[in-house]
Design a protein that fits this description.
With about 110 residues, the chain is an alpha+beta fold. The chain has a domain at about 45-105: Metal Transport, Frataxin, Chain A, CATH 3.30.920. It contains two helices and eight strands, in the order ββββαβββαβ. The protein has helices at about 45-55, 90-95; strands spanning about 5-10, 10-15, 30-35, 40, 55-60, 65-70, 75-80, 100-105. The strands form three sheets. It has a three-stranded antiparallel β-sheet, with helices on one face. The protein has a three-stranded antiparallel β-sheet with strand order 5-6-7. A hairpin with a 5-residue loop joins β6 (about 65-70) and β7 (about 75-80).
C-alpha cells in the first residue's frame, strides 16, 4: 500500500499513489541510470550493451521478451519486447541483480 497521508477537516486519510489534496494525481516517472557512466538508459540496445559488459547473456527463445541470464547464477531478467512498456518494476529487477552498476531515479 503506497500513498500519502492527508489531514483535512479533522480527518486523516490515505490518498493512493501520491494524489494531491486537490484530487490531481502526482505521478513520478522513473529512469534507469547506469551508475559508472551516469547515463540514463534510453533503449534496449544501450541496456544490452551494459548487461553484456557485466557478464549477462541474451536469450532469443521468446520474441515477446528480452531475456538475460548470467552464467553461473539462477538470475534471469525478463523484459517486455516493447521498450515503451519498460516499467519501474523491470528497472528495480535490474538494479537488484546489478547493485553497483545501475540505480533508479525520479525524473
Amino acid at each position: 500500500m503506497s500513498g500519502v497521508w492527508v489531514f483535512k477537516n479533522g480527518v486523516v486519510r490515505l490518498v493512493e499513489n501520491g494524489a494531491a489534496a486537490g484530487g490531481e494525481a502526482v505521478r513520478r516517472r522513473k529512469a534507469l541510470v547506469h551508475t559508472p557512466s551516469g547515463q540514463v538508459v534510453r533503449s534496449y540496445a544501450e541496456l544490452e550493451s551494459e548487461l553484456r559488459a557485466l557478464g549477462w547473456e541474451r536469450y532469443y527463445e521468446d520474441p515477446t521478451l528480452y531475456q538475460f541470464h548470467k552464467r553461473g547464477s539462477l538470475d534471469l531478467i525478463s523484459l517486455p519486447a516493447d521498450f515503451a512498456r519498460f516499467s519501474s518494476v523491470h528497472m528495480y529487477d535490474i538494479v537488484i541483480k546489478n547493485r553497483e552498476a545501475f540505480r533508479v531515479v525520479d525524473i
